[in-house]
Write a structure and sequence with these properties.
This protein is of the alpha+beta class and about 260 residues long. It contains seven helices and 14 strands. The radius of gyration is 17 Å and the shape is globular. Its main location: membrane. Belongs to the inositol monophosphatase superfamily. CysQ family. Its EC number is 3.1.3.7.
Length: about 260
């Protein structure tokens, strides 16, 4: 399948969802909580509905797995060779706290790997997209589009991690890197900051789900980076359990050790 041919349509769908999300973000919205106590707003639901409708218009025969969609049993999902993976809003806490660091995410998964991804940060007016093997792009807040690629790391590594919520495992990992500086970024923008060359490595030693990472991983991989588990294996998708193992996202320089 030639993903570059449908990428413009996917970007349009993500843009439409982002416009709706931004409209709600700028309003006096209400915050509810799901059974796992994670926050959800009308923006999550509206974004999900827009994206699902848009993706079905692009291709009706490709199934969709969305964080805000209905649970789809493994007996059905295990037969999917290719599927859309959607996070209508990644970083809902950033959304509710109005930091601007939240994103709309659409990925295409094929044979367990993200092969195309679109990540839009509505409040920051930034958009990232990429097709693995064909490159990645950034549309900045002025609307200008340019190609992006991971940077060659310098002696002082730029680490994407929260200054306020570093667990002990993450601190230990960062300390092993030697000289470093912390780069702040929320949601899936952590991957994108590496993809555009503004950071070097993102250690995630805490829980995430497949929809949290799929689109941004595709962008990073398309930009020359990689994502691997702590055992040095690729981060895989379409598993029975949608939880990800801990992982390291980086430019291609990092080798598990």
């Amino acid at each position: 399948m030639h993903y570059s041919s449908i990428l413009p349509d996917v970007i349009k769908v993500a843009d439409e969802a982002s416009e709706k999300v931004l409209h709600i973000y700028q309003s006096d919205f209400k915050v509810d909580f799901k059974s796992d106590h994670s926050p959800i707003t009308a923006a999550d639901t509206a974004s999900h509905e827009i994206i699902v409708r848009g993706l079905r218009n692009i291709s009706r025969d490709i199934p969709i797995l969305s964080e805000e969609g209905k649970d789809i049993p493994w007996e059905e999902r295990k037969h999917w060779r290719r599927f859309w993976l959607v996070d209508p809003i990644d970083g809902t806490k950033d959304f509710t706290q109005r930091t601007g660091e939240f994103t709309v995410n659409i990925a295409m998964i094929e044979d367990g790997e993200p092969v195309m991804g679109v990540v839009i940060a509505p409040a920051l007016k930034e958009a990232f997209w990429g097709v693995v093997g064909e490159g990645a792009h950034l549309r900045d807040r002025t609307g200008k589009v340019r190609g992006i690629r991971v940077a060659e790391p310098k002696a002082v590594k730029r680490v994407v991690a929260s200054k306020n919520h570093l667990n002990e495992e993450t601190k230990a990992f960062i300390d092993k890197l030697g000289d470093h500086e912390l780069v702040q970024a929320g949601s899936s923008l952590k991957f994108c900051r590496i993809a555009e060359g503004h950071a070097d490595i993102y250690p995630r030693l805490g829980p995430t789900c497949e929809w949290d990472t799929g689109a941004a991983q595709a962008v990073l991989t398309a930009a020359g980076g990689k994502v691997q588990t702590l055992e040095g294996k690729p981060l895989k998708y379409g598993k029975e359990d949608v939880l990800n193992p801990f992982f390291i996202a980086s430019g291609d320089w990092y080798i598990h050790r």
